[in-house]
Every structure is written in structure tokens, then in C-alpha cells.
Amino acid sequence: MGHESIPSKWVGNDIPLLDQSGSILDLLDANEIGTRPTVFITHSLGGILAKAVLRASCDTPVEYDKHLLHKNTVGVVFFSTPHTGSSIANLIQALPMSRPTSILERLSKNDDYLRNLSQWFSDKAKQLHYGCLTYFEAHKTGRFLVVDPVSANPNHGMSPVAFNGDHLEICKLPDTGDQRYKQVLKFVRKSVQSRVHEKIKLPHDEPIEKVEFEIGVMPMPPQNGRVAEYHPTSRILTYKSMASRDSISIAPTMLYLDRQIRGEITDPIEYFWNPFLCQFPALDVMLVNNSDRTLVLSGATLAVDSSAPDFSPVIVIPSNTSEMVLKIKNEGWGKVTNAILKCNLLPSDVGYVADPPINHLAVPSTFDHEFPIGDFAESAEVNLRETLRGLGVDVDAIKEARSRSQIMFAMHAMQNGGDVVSAKHMGRFPEMETDETWAKFPNGYVLVVGRLEFESQDQHGIQTKYSLPMRARVFMFAPRMDLPMPPSYQYNAELEPTGCNYEVPVKLSQTLKSGDADRFTIRISCAQSAVHSFRIRWNFVGGFSSESQLIRLKHFVPRTFANEQIEALEGNVFDDEVPEFHTQSYSDCVEQSLMNTMRMTQVMAESRKPSEKSEGSTK
Predict the structure, then answer these.
(1) Residue 464: helix, strand or coil by DSSP?
(2) DSSP state, residue 49
(3) Contact 495, 535 (CB under 8 A)
(4) At 603, which helix (H) or strand (E)?
(5) pLDDT reported for residue 344
(6) How far is CA 182 from CA 37, 178, 516, 581, 601, in A?
(7) Alpha-carbon distance 316 to 274, whole Å?
(8) Whole-angstrom Cα distance, residue 404 to residue 411?
(9) What is d(CA 132, CA 155) in angstroms, rounded to the nearest whole number?
(10) HSE value, Cβ hemisphere, 13 Å, CA-based, for 202
């Protein structure tokens, strides 16, 4: 973890022990370590730091995630930890002009802080059922015994075991056959598997009502974290290239963009989160070596002559905007200025039909209405209420009316052989006393047909005037959501292949105003095939909670797939081979021990590989 353990201020300044424990706790929390069963493997001062970190976690208020670490800790391995201090620290301080650091002062024999910390750990370890495995050195390091058997005893669990070596050698494991390695591996497995976790009581005790969760499963969940949403081919972005003798031109192509560039009519499009399915271009490179030597390609550099932004506007009109307000969005990066909508407001001529067609309506040359919009970068709204009021629509009555029940209308249609789609559309209408409320728009729609005129920069940065023909549907009321929306975000959680009464926190961030709905996914992973039984406790800011019904999940995780995931993860953390352990002087042995702990973790992971390879020796 890179903390300092400097013995003298002549060498440099150190960080006080309490500050280091808080910093390490913050680092562990940032990497979500402590949310599952946790074992600390420590050497020398690292053991004292581990106890200080656990105490800092215990002292953290329960509503913070850092409080979970000491609850989920199941064991600690101590390699020569001076729980009550070291006589060598007293000796160094007695030297003339030694200038001891704060850490060295803490390591003094029978230091008050160490005795207090040791007593706290002994009590807390018994209370939370921590396991402890302890070793101490039997040989001197140079002329001194750094940690004696008395100081090495944490006063919890079995008595410390003597190691036939010195303080520097005790945490260096030569291979997987070493006695210490086998004992540590056995200790970790037993601590994690046999520990019955106490249920962590979080500050979300007050149940919340009128919040409904519907839980299902996606037949083909996205594996790259992107949410799924349907897009027609006209709104799927692709790239095409054209090569000449001197250059290659790569440009985006999308039918929607092409139509807008050609000045064709822009119609409303239906989407929830993203109007277009886009991706970054991927260069397809084929390399042929026609030389007489072997070439090893080691890298590539993109030497960029120039990069310039494209400020071209891309106007999008969302389908079926509501409450007599037309919404206009700009998916381009240029600012739209001096915008004005010239249009006619027309009723639908096809009766009570959900989403009546509008592509047969031609854009006229003269218009009855003009709506100044002004400037906007991302979106703008055109309020049609006062204009519709002037056309005889009872705007206030529509706004204050109660909603109907789509379910009742749909059930009536099904029982009587009616059109279910039309019935559900009628169920979206508010309950009105008379049809005169709608004036000449009896089916609840206003069809907007006209031109959006504005100024903006083109792809070359030149200020240009645009006149975009457009059509749109606008609901006169706020319709209820009829179709399920696609997920807005994906979260991840990992279950253990074996265990009981444990908890897996999942950090969520979903904000819903009153009356809102949202949808998200939680991808559940596991290291191997397993069968799980769990409930989900939904926690809300303010101390409210809601709990799901029992969920039974059967995981199928092929061995090959699991190995691929593990290799991909470990490839970013460790090298392919376990590096040699290094011998350091006493002044930085604590820092080196932390690296050794990481290497020990890799050695433990590697111990499984020989048995796996023996099952498929033909590979």
C-alpha cells in the first residue's frame, strides 16, 4: 500500500499511525474491500496498522460503507507483529541524536497506545469471532530479536508459533510446499467458509410504502455494460471509407442524417434514452509481411495534423410529446440561434387511433401560426396551450381531469371481442364530462406541420440559415406509460459460490420524482456454477427501505468462461510469473511485507492451477 515506516527523522518524515490507518481504510473502501468476508495477512508494523484500520472502521458511523470492514473481517494473520512494542525501538531512541519518528515512538516497549489498541482488538476479536494465526521469529536479525514471543502474542486465539528464521525471513515464502503457506491457505479457507456472518444492521429500518419493484431477468443481458434499446436501421450509425492513391476518407453514414442534409421532412422518432445507436469507428487493419525478415509490431502512434469540431446541427423531434408542449432537441454540437417555428395545428383525420399516421401530410407553403423560440444549444420547448385555448380547447379542464384505467378498457375489449390496442389508447385519456372540451381535436392529438427556421454553423464553421420541414404529434394531456422502458443503467454484484447469511452491498444511484418510473439492471456474477437463495433490500436516502420477495437463482458458469474472467482480471494486477521475494533492510521491511502479501495472494491463487491442468493435460 506504499505507507512509510521510517525509523529516524534523519532519513525522512513519516506519517503518524492514526493518519495511516485512516488513509488505508479510505483506500480499501474506494476499492470496495470489506463488503465481503475479509482476511488480513500482515507482517511486523502491518499487523498494528491492520488493527488500527479495524478500529477506525468500528469508529466510523454505521451509515457509511467504511463501517462494514470490521464487521466483515473474519481473520487476521500476524507475522512477527510487536503488539506491545519492540525493545529495539527503545534501543534506537536511546542512541544519541536518534531523532525517532512518531511510528518508532509508538513501537516503544509497553507504549500506552499499543497496549490500548491490543486490548481493544482482543475484546473486539472475541465479540466478532475473528480468527487469528500468529508466528514469531526464533532467530535474531543481526544482533537483535526484533519481536519476542510475548510481544508477538495478540492475546486471542492459539499461542504464537515459532519460525526458524529472523524478522526479515518470516514473511517470505519460498514455495507452495512451505509450512507457513499451507497453514495460511488453510486458515483463509476455514475462516471464509465456516464463518457465519452476523447480519449487518444498516440504518434503513423504516419501511416505505407505495414504491413498487418488479423483478425479472433479461433473456440476453448486455455483457459490456450498455443498456439495450431498439433502433431502426435508419437511426443506426455506421462508417464507410473511400481510398485514393494519397489518402483514405472515413465518414459517418446514417439515413436519418442523410435525409436531414437533403432537406427532407423531419418526422418524430420514438426512443427512451438515445435517439441513435452509435459507436466509435474502429479501424480495420490488415498487415502483410512481404519482407525477408520477421517483424514484431510493438506499437503505433497517431500523428495528427489537425482536429476541428463539427458544429453542424442535428434536429430531433421526440415522438408523442405531451401536455400541449412540443419538444425539440439538438443532437449536434452547434448552438441554434434565432429559431422560429412556422406551422399549422391540425386534428387527426383517422379517428380514435393510437399514434395516428402523419407521413401523408404535406408541408404547406403558408402557415397559420408562428412560435418564436430564440436560441438553444440542447433543447427547446414550444408551448401550444394558449394557441389551443384560442381554438376552443378547454385547457384547464383537461389539465385538472382524473386519469382513466387502461386495464379496465383493455379487459372490456378482450371480453367483448373489441380492438385491444384502441381500447388501451382510449384508457390513456383523462375522464372528461363532455367531448366539447377537445374542440376540433377529439382524439387528443395535435398534429404540428410546418418549418423550423434557424441559424447555426455548418460542418465548415460557416454561419448558415436553415429551413427544416417537420411534422410532429403532441398529446393534449399527460398519457400514462404504456410500454416498458429500456434499462437506464446496469449495476454489478458478485455472489459467493458457497456461504450463508452474508450480504453483498450494491451501490445504486437512481432518482425518481413522485409519479416517475425507471428501469435498471443488476448483473449477478459468480466464480462458478451455484444455486442461490436471497432477497434484495432496497435502501433509500433518509433511512427508508423495502424488501423483495425471495429470489432463487441458479447460476451456470462454464469452467472455461470462469477461467477467462479470472485471467482477464488477474492480467491487470499481477505478472504472469510470481516475482522473487526481495531481502530488504529493517528500515523498509514493513513496506516490502505489503508487497509480499500481494504476492502471497497470487501464490495462493496459483496453487489451484496444477490440479486444473491435470484434468486437461492434453491442452
Answers:
(1) strand
(2) H
(3) no
(4) helix 589-606
(5) 95
(6) 20, 6, 56, 18, 13
(7) 11
(8) 13
(9) 10
(10) 21
Residue with cell 492475546: 155
Contact in structure between 162 and 139 (CB atoms under 8 Å): no
Q: Say how many domains are in the chain.
A: 3
Least Cα distance to 345 among 384, 394, 398 occurs for 384
Q: Let me know whether 479 and 494 are in one domain.
A: no
Measured distance CA(76)–CA(79) in Å, rounded: 10
Residue 288 lies in a domain: no
Say whether pLDDT at 576 is over 80: no
Phi, psi of 111 (to 5 degrees): -60, 140
CATH number of the domain that residue 577 is part of? 3.40.50
C-alpha cell at position 490? 446496469
φ/ψ bin of 549: left (φ > 0), alpha (ψ from -120 to 50), beta (otherwise): beta
The C-alpha atoms of residue 231 and residue 277 are separated, in whole angstroms, by 6
Residue 297 lies in a domain: no
Same-domain check for residues 110 and 179: yes
Contact 419/352 with Cβ under 8 angstroms?
no
Strands in 369-376's sheet, in edge-to-edge order, are 369-376, 336-346, 445-457, 463-475
Identify whether residues 344 and 467 lie together within a single domain.
yes
**Among 43, 51, 62, 4, residue whose Cα is nearest residue 25:** 51
Q: How many CB atoms lie within 10 A of CB 130?
A: 23
The three-class DSSP label of residue 352 is coil
Q: How far is CA 226 from CA 318, 326, 487, in A?
A: 22, 29, 9
Q: How far apart are CA 265 and CA 349, in angstroms?
A: 20
Are both 610 and 521 inside the same structural domain? no
CA distance 30 to 65: 10
Cell of 78: 500476524
Cell of 199: 447480519
Spatial separation of the C-alpha atoms in residues 250 and 115, rounded to whole Å: 70
The answer to whether 94 and 88 are in contact (CB under 8 A) is: no
Torsion of CA 585, 590, 595, 597, to 10 degrees: 120
Question: What angle, rounded to 10 degrees, do the helices at 589-606 and 179-194 form?
Answer: 70
Residue 222 CB: number of other CB atoms within 10 A? 13
Cα 193–199–201 angle (5° rounding)?
A: 150
Q: Can you give the residue range of the structural domain that contains 523?
A: 206-225+487-555
Alpha helices in 416-522 (DSSP H): 420-427
3-class state of residue 445 by DSSP: strand
What is the pLDDT at residue 405? 65
**Exposure of 178 in the CB half-sphere (CA atoms within 13 A):** 17
**Whether residues 276 and 397 fall in one domain:** yes
| 595-607: average pLDDT | 49
Q: Output the pLDDT for position 327.
A: 95
pTM: 0.48
Cell of residue 329, nine digits = 432537441
Helix (H) or strand (E) holding 448: strand 445-457
Q: Residue 614: is its pLDDT beyond 60?
A: no
Spatial separation of the C-alpha atoms in residues 90 and 82, rounded to whole Å: 13
Residue 535 phi, psi (nearest 5): -120, 160
| CB neighbour class for 352 (10 Å; exposed up to 12, middle 13-18, buried from 19) | middle
Summarised one tens digit per residue, pLDDT across range 64-96 is 888 889 888 989 999 988 888 765 544 444 434
Here the cell at position 208 is 416505505
